[in-house]
Amino acid sequence: MYSRFLVSALFAGATAGLIAGILQLIFVQPVLLHAELYESGQLVHFGAEAVTAHPDLPGFDVMRDGLSLIFTMLTYTGYALIMIALMGIAEDRGAVIDGRTGLIWGVAGFVVFHLAPGVSLAPEVPGVAAADVTARQIWWFATVGAAAVALWLVAFGTTWMVWGVAAVLLAAPHLIGAPEPDVLVGPVPTEIGALFAARAFGVGLAAWVLLGSFAGYFWQREGVADTSTASA
Amino acid sequence: MTTVTQAQSRIRILPAFFALALGFGVIALTGHVQAAALHDAAHDVRHATGFPCH
């Protein structure tokens, strides 16, 4: 049973992570590199002269981008482990888990890990002002935890009271508020920051939907393998 | 039949929690530990994934 969890999470996480990493390098990385030109002072916004919106960006960097691919695959394998653990528990309670229902799990995972914390703590382009990192991490974990519980209650709850609790859990972190910087000193143009957040969310959603579907598919496939080994 | 299902559930809950803990460990490592080497290697991923960075 341990191997069913580990093997299906590894397959789903590595595959979705590889695709996520490639999407990130194509769509997010150029925006990030553009922002770094302002972070490092190579480009200056709000100066006397207009600045080109299409500067020359460094190309593919084997070391840096290779590490990004590896860490994206690792991160999505972490997500897959968490999602497949919950899929296993849900299946015990009667839920159908396969590649198709996995799509919904993927959307839910995106909401829990990207959208819920990102609504108040937007994906940060390099160079923006931000509050203390520890405070933001605590808020991030609390928000992700609350959203995870909330979506479980939405999916498997059966009464309005349970759904009400879910709504409160989803809203509470944002009503309390995320840690914010005291002053706004970021040198990056707002257009770049907004595009970065939008791209990060878009790539995140695509990757999570794939992850959910792969996780459901491999979980079911490994289950069939488990049963045939047991009966053989 | 019921006994079989119950036995299966009991077997499944432990590996599920094991996978859950391992998953959170991996996320914490790739996304949140601030050690310099790890931070630098995962820098672009952390920004793109919406983890708090720096």
UniProtKB/TrEMBL annotation, chain A:
InterPro entries registered for this protein in UniProt: CbtA_put
Protein name: Cobalt transporter subunit CbtA
Keyword set includes Endoplasmic reticulum: no
Originating organism: Sulfitobacter noctilucicola
Lineage: Bacteria, Pseudomonadati, Pseudomonadota, Alphaproteobacteria, Rhodobacterales
Pfam families registered for this protein in UniProt: CbtA
UniProt keyword Transmembrane, yes or no: yes
Keywords per UniProt: Membrane, Transmembrane, Transmembrane helix
Transmembrane intervals: 67-90, 102-122, 137-155, 160-176, 196-219
UniProtKB/TrEMBL annotation, chain B:
Pfam families: CbtB (PF09489)
Domain of life where this protein originates: Bacteria
Cited InterPro entries: CbtB_put (IPR012667)
Protein name (Swiss-Prot/TrEMBL): Cobalt transporter subunit CbtB
